[in-house]
Amino acid sequence: MKVLFIGGTGKISTAVSRLAVERGIDLYHLNRGQRGVSLPGVTTLTADITRPSEVARVLEGYRFDAVVDWIAFTEPDIERDLSLFRGRVGQYVFISSASAYQKPLASPIITESTPLYNPFWQYSRNKIACEERLMRAYREEGFPITIVRPSHTYDSNFPIAIGGWDTYTLPDRLLRGAPIIVHGDGTSLWVVTHSRDFAKAFVPLLGHPQAIGQAFHITSDQVLTWNQIYTTLAEALGVEPKIVHMPSDFIARLEPEIGAGLLGDKAHSVIFDNTKIKRLVPEYTATIPFHLGVRETLAWFQADPARLRVDERVNAQMDRLIAAYRAATDADPIS
User: Fold this and answer.
1) Domain 2-153+193-218 falls in which CATH fold?
2) 2-153+193-218 with 156-191+222-269+290-329: one CATH topology?
3) Whose CA, among 100, 113, 164, 306, lies 20 to 30 Å from 131?
4) What radius of gyration do the chain's Cα atoms show?
5) Is the pLDDT of residue 330 over 90?
6) Cα(293)–Cα(193) distance, rounded to whole angstroms?
7) In the CATH scheme, what is the code of domain 156-191+222-269+290-329?
8) pLDDT tens across 249-291, in order?
9) What is the mean pLDDT of residues 141-149?
């Protein structure tokens, strides 16, 4: 099977690429070749997806059994892909987001039939618009789509809500004994998924005839509270966290950049029903619990001093929020 990944060297797609090659897929990456990620067994086609004429020249003569776009975020991205791949692909896989599901949720148990509705976060609304355009292409012209909705998936990053998920900022704060922020009272439920677990469900969807015209979310079945997520990270570092619990709407008023992702996603308790993906991929089981996965992530960062980057902008954001909350509550909120 010949498969093209648009992107393919990101935090989720790298794990998927490795498993795809391991399972004998003839895998191609289309990207600008700027990440410097070397994946044995992958053929790289160098082009900028934002320049469709350039991409068309590079792809001339190719036909793929499946194309996965890991970096499509808006409806114009979808229109570009439709133009590029009509009649040239057996399956087109769009990477959406579980944040597209209804917020606030009418039920915390999420299935693929849960409505798509998010008035809080533009990122999610853009993903919904992409899905709707693709479903129209499937209904009206038979364009062979599959939609996949990851939730909070991690590998060389930390699945946190506040603190700089792709830097070492939060571990650095924990190690220094600086306070960290957990939204709400920390007891709402959340699901995190390691990228290697995600890959185990995703790769079998490639070329699967029963996946055409369908949407799937792929998550683990481990449900944690936000308090557990942050304290598990602290435990892996061997420290006791100084947590400041702070209302999500307070955070959103002071830092809208953070607030959109809270009110539009992470402030809500979620439990994912993975029955649908397991029906097509019956062997799928997520086997990397967070207390082990987060230690792998820490080890990855600590293996190279260059990865221990602290984002001072994120630090400043957190310090501003904590100072403002202390002033508003006239108390020391650290617990």
Assistant:
1) Rossmann fold (3.40.50)
2) no
3) 164
4) 21
5) no
6) 9
7) 3.90.25
8) 999 999 999 999 999 999 999 999 999 999 999 999 999 999 9
9) 98
